[in-house]
Amino acid sequence: MVLHLVPRCSARLLWASPGWRRTYTQGASVGQKRLGCPGDTYRPLACRGHSSVSGSPEVMLTPERYPVQRLPFSTVSEEDLAAFERIIPGRVITDPEQLEACNVDWLRALRGCSKVLLRPQTSEEVSQILRHCHKRNLAVNPQGGNTGMVGGSVPVFDEVILSTALMNQVISFHDVSGILVCQAGCVLEELSHYVQERDFIMPLDLGAKGSCHIGGNVATNAGGLRFLRYGSLRGTVLGLEVVLADGTILNCLTSLRKDNTGYDLKQLFIGSEGTLGIITAVSILCPPRPKAVNVAFLGCPGFTEVLQTFSTCKGMLGEILSAFEFMDSECMQLVGQHLHLTNPVQESPFYVLVETSGSRAGHDSEKLTNVLEKVLNSGLVSDGTMATDQRKVQMLWALRERITEALSRDGYVFKYDISLPVERLYDLVIDLRTRLGPRAKHVVGYGHLGDGNLHLNVTAEAFSQELLTALEPYVYAWTAEQRGSVSAEHGLGFKKKNVLGYSKPPVAVKLMQQLKALLDPKGILNPYKTLPAQA
Amino acid sequence: MVLHLVPRCSARLLWASPGWRRTYTQGASVGQKRLGCPGDTYRPLACRGHSSVSGSPEVMLTPERYPVQRLPFSTVSEEDLAAFERIIPGRVITDPEQLEACNVDWLRALRGCSKVLLRPQTSEEVSQILRHCHKRNLAVNPQGGNTGMVGGSVPVFDEVILSTALMNQVISFHDVSGILVCQAGCVLEELSHYVQERDFIMPLDLGAKGSCHIGGNVATNAGGLRFLRYGSLRGTVLGLEVVLADGTILNCLTSLRKDNTGYDLKQLFIGSEGTLGIITAVSILCPPRPKAVNVAFLGCPGFTEVLQTFSTCKGMLGEILSAFEFMDSECMQLVGQHLHLTNPVQESPFYVLVETSGSRAGHDSEKLTNVLEKVLNSGLVSDGTMATDQRKVQMLWALRERITEALSRDGYVFKYDISLPVERLYDLVIDLRTRLGPRAKHVVGYGHLGDGNLHLNVTAEAFSQELLTALEPYVYAWTAEQRGSVSAEHGLGFKKKNVLGYSKPPVAVKLMQQLKALLDPKGILNPYKTLPAQA
Question: Containing H/E element for B304?
Fold first, then answer.
């Protein structure tokens, strides 16, 4: 059902791009060995095991664009390759074409020059690899789906790439509690299908679901589209298995909702972006699959009305509100222009997507209809459409989820992922439009309004140092002034490690560096990432 | 409204104990200076600023009952007292009667012999105190409401007691987002009243709410009665201010739902029981106050039926299910005998308390009534009563919440707080009844079934080494065999630190000890607690 609200314009609900649905449908089933990565639609270049660069412009080597010095790690020798081959026979990749894809991030902004890609299948193999690298002082770049936004998943120089792609087995699923235990390389969308068949859902969902690995999700503490309802991975991840820098296996892979025995070590690794250990398996609590899902897509005349619509939804929908996303009119223009998606409602300065997930369809649509009547009657919303059947729900979600893809087709993208007090969330976008003027192609704002999380993106024909200088540190200083976070959910990776100080005091940064030194004294795990270099 | 289901017996809903309601009503308002501790009803002896021991039997000194050696810390000198007096004039307590109360835990099982109690009001004062103690190598015992179950909050020897009781100010509350920022010494129940007046609730609730401090809740990662719905403090605590062992103030007191800038340091301190730093302020996300709360209290003929009732509730109540607690018939017998509470339903082998919290009263009671009809008709439940008005809801909750109090009046209590696979949750209780025979007065099981959390309690006339030997390590080994946790929510404190190895592998224990050494190299913070002594 697509229930259309005033004014009626269902004829406009067209989806012109035949490719977009692939994100939702393709991908090998869980448990199947995967050599490639699905979700190609919006991943122009990722670790596929074959080169995809033909026709694409060359990506500059990272050290050519950014001021970064190689640290005195060893370089991979023939003896090292032989040792790796003994540990994982046939899964040591040195073919330059295959390596190319894993050396470049999917935003095509960074390029490393690693000479070897390792594809272990078990934590024991990861342990042996790390033991060797630790002894030999070889730097290691852990890589999941390579969908990160901040350059955390590709090497900066010649780090050994350790991919979790072949660690893709479900270990167990408890169909009463909904606790899933799986290897780190399982693709999020495949896990999603797996648990949905058993009447549960994954507690997180994000645009990159077709490619990202659960281990990478946990390592970056991914937020995404279900955060508002199901909260942070810090609450839903129940256990982890991690291999430490020296190859020690730390088994905290429990499946208990509560466990207060000593310090909660798994928290160290959630969000540490592979710099403290490599996550090899995850135990995660999946919520029951909601019996009814409704999505409304609404046009709002201004940002104040967006905020008031949010308050209304929170108050009236309560426990069934599962997402509240917003996007501005430039986002809509871009998904139309580059992906040929059609705006299902009247053109408006802002759009919001409201999702409810509940246990009783009748109750839920009654609640949502009441909300929609109220926001339409009070002028908070100028037009809206509502969907309950899965295909239409996905169509509406695509408008929001595929903004990233549309942006990447618009040119070079400067990406910012910021937490701000919700009432100031859009001010920075307006401010930047004035500040940048015609130097920017587009300045857009969208994101998880319900979580106070703005995705601010600026596109240009090509990378421009002048534009970068106009943006940074201005954006970070503006955010710090509002006591916001300069990385809400993307992490710091390579690109943002030096802006940590805008959101954390020196005492905190020092303690982080001490933790790094304790867990990885040689600094071999994902070097040049997350933390600024020590003075 | 109390809707009574078959058979009718509302006349039995009597509450004979005039004192029990004090837990819900007394206590100074938030922001007011507090010198005493409310919640006297079930705290026979706590830190009140005056002695309460007259008439109570003497509690043995901890080192007389347990094998523990004082570590080579300095002892508090006249010069130290003078230094403390300069930092917090008039708030250095050395009066033996006042100290007595803070030296003994509320279960009256442990007694330290501290000679000084410090009552700072600000984090700056805590910082100066710790700087002094660190320099002088004086051990420090942080103390909140002193309601802990495992002896984490009282000194073992002569540690300086640092109380958060005067750090009881609300710093800010955001009435759109529900984010509360407050000092660590705010009493949970007072915060609860504070946010309820603003249409929010605290994300945690527990029996000790009238006395426990929010800082202590966070330091022990308290679970409690709302865990099923609102999850762990690891998700709801947004920021912390912590004073480190050397007096450094670590300010991570942000109010952002999402913040992925570097390692999430606050997680180190959540659940570390004051051994890594002293929490001085907390930022926490409060959920909107549910518009409708329903409670059903049901009698079940067996534990299998308890489990099936839980599955039914999960499936049919979905997002509005906010608590699922259980207790056995011996618990009911004890609350009747010691507190004169009356069983509102037919006598049954098991009882469950089901709570729903939702946004629409009509929808919610329709859902709950449907569930109750189903479980009654299918024989899963033999009798039940349902309440929606607040007073009756609290009466039903009291049956569950006051079990701890009833147990403490029954004699010496051996307490275990265990996470287990839910289907095995009650087996250990049955097993122990056989094993202990008449040596135990009562062996009871109750707890947070929805979280897989059993509170197993054994009472006896007095402490008995023979009974202890029959219980330990048997209970821990049994739990380990089921891959459970030997401390689900109470923490390890002093009493359980040596059983950590039953739930965590040696690699994890070693890493915990390394973290302790990094953050508190002199080991002055809450020594003899949480971690086993290093070999």
Answer: helix B303-317
Token pair 């592979």: residue: A274
The pTM of the full predicted model, rounded to 2 decimals, is 0.90
Q: How confident is the model at residue A53 (pLDDT cuts 50, 70, 90)?
A: very low
Q: Return the residue of A nearest to B233 by Cα.
A: A235
Average pLDDT on B120-130 reads 98
**What's the farthest any 2 CA atoms get from each other in chain A?**
73
Chain B: nearest CA to A258, how far in angstroms?
Answer: 5
Q: What is the pLDDT of residues B262-299, one digit of tens each?
A: 999 999 999 999 999 999 999 999 999 999 999 999 99
Q: Dihedral sign for Cα A41, A43, A46, A51, please.
A: positive
Length in residues, chain B? 535
Q: Where are the alpha helices (DSSP H) in A197-302?
A: 214-219, 227-230, 233-236, 266-269
- Across the beta sheet with A292-300, the strand order is A2-4, A383-387, A292-300, A350-358, A321-328, A442-448, A453-460, A412-419
Does B1 score more than 60 pLDDT?
no
B379 touches chain A (CB under 8 A): no
Record: contact A319-B314, CB cut-off 8 A: no
Q: How far away is chain A from the Cα of B17, in angstroms, using its nearest Cα?
A: 33
Query: Which parts of A113-213 fold into alpha helices (H)?
Result: 123-136, 188-196
Compute CA A24 distance to the chain's CA centroid, rounded to the nearest angstrom: 16
Gyration radius of chain B over CA positions:
23
Chain A contact set for B363 (CB, 8 A) = 360, 363, 367
**Per-residue model confidence (pLDDT) at position A534:** 76
- Contacting A residues, span 404-443, partner chain B, CB-CB under 8 Å: 419, 422-423
- B55, pLDDT greater than 60: no
The C-alpha atoms of residue A235 and residue A243 are separated, in whole angstroms, by: 22
* Number of inter-chain CB pairs under 8 A, A vs B: 251
Residue with the larger pLDDT of the pair A274 and A7? A274
| Binding-face residues of B in 102-161 toward A, CB within 8 A | none
The pLDDT value recorded for residue A184 is 98
pLDDT band (50, 70, 90) for residue B56: low
B window 171-230, beta carbon within 8 A of A: 176-177, 220-221, 223, 227
The interface predicted TM-score (ipTM) is 0.89
